[in-house]
């Protein structure tokens, strides 16, 4: 069992107070217990994709949560969604590549249970046909997930740029669990990038800029929104 602790969060965020954490990225940490999240009352954006979580109960106390990313975990019972019904600010939820997402009425069930949602996985919920599912109650427990190809992940843990969900990088009042910008979906970064740079950094920075521009063509609209947010945050923080 791998348990998320206060020490892990503080170490990754460099924040002394858990109530200051608003954005937390714990991608690919093999976590299966995140009960400590109850101590993060101001958490707004949380990424726990590529972990071993089987329940959503640890999120029910995150009352300010707006975006929750849980791709490639082990949530099998679709009724776990009931733990999120009181998260009135939750607008974005990703559960694709969990066994529960194989339920035939998965999207309709989630849309009915969480009317506050605007996006489920990569879908705008305004396009979901709610008549295709009954009111949210006791669907059959989903069986083991079928083996489906996911985004390419190398031995270093870097996610493919084609991954539909873009994990968040570190920002002001936020945290990334030690993953590189490549894992977070933003591509390479240079130290000191943005200014002229020193120590021959000009040519290196220009090469990185060309590489980033080339990678933009591989991203869909959803991905580009996240890239724009990150750019705006970095410019606004100067």
From TrEMBL:
<feature type="compositionally biased region" description="Gly residues">
    <location>
        <begin position="192"/>
        <end position="203"/>
    </location>
</feature>
<feature type="compositionally biased region" description="Low complexity">
    <location>
        <begin position="139"/>
        <end position="152"/>
    </location>
</feature>
<keyword id="KW-0433">Leucine-rich repeat</keyword>
<dbReference type="Pfam" id="PF14580">
    <property type="entry name" value="LRR_9"/>
</dbReference>
<dbReference type="GO" id="GO:0005930">
    <property type="term" value="C:axoneme"/>
</dbReference>
<feature type="region of interest" description="Disordered">
    <location>
        <begin position="139"/>
        <end position="203"/>
    </location>
</feature>
<dbReference type="InterPro" id="IPR001611">
    <property type="entry name" value="Leu-rich_rpt"/>
</dbReference>
<keyword id="KW-0677">Repeat</keyword>
<dbReference type="InterPro" id="IPR032675">
    <property type="entry name" value="LRR_dom_sf"/>
</dbReference>
<protein>
    <recommendedName>
        <fullName>U2A'/phosphoprotein 32 family A C-terminal domain-containing protein</fullName>
    </recommendedName>
</protein>
């Amino acid at each position: 069992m791998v348990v998320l602790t206060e020490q892990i969060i503080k170490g990754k965020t460099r924040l002394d107070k858990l109530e200051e954490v608003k954005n937390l990225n714990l991608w690919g940490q093999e976590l299966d217990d995140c009960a400590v999240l109850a101590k993060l009352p101001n958490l707004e954006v949380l990424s726990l994709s590529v972990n071993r979580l089987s329940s959503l109960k640890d999120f029910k106390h995150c009352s300010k949560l707006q975006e929750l990313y849980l791709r490639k975990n082990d949530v099998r019972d679709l009724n776990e969604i009931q733990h999120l019904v009181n998260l009135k600010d939750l607008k974005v939820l990703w559960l694709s590549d969990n066994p529960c997402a194989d339920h035939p009425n998965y999207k309709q069930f989630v849309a009915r249970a969480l009317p506050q949602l605007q996006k489920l996985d990569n879908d705008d919920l305004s396009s979901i046909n709610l008549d295709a599912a009954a009111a949210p109650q006791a669907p059959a427990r989903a069986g083991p997930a079928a083996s489906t190809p996911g985004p390419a992940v190398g031995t270093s843990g870097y996610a493919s740029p084609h991954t539909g969900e873009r994990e968040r990088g570190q920002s002001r009042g936020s945290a990334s669990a030690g993953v590189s910008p490549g894992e977070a979906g933003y591509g390479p970064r240079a130290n000191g990038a943005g200014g002229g740079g020193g120590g021959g950094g000009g040519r290196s920075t220009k090469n990185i800029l060309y590489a980033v521009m080339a990678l933009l063509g591989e991203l869909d609209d959803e991905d580009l929104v996240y890239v724009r947010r990150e750019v705006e945050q970095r410019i606004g923080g100067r």
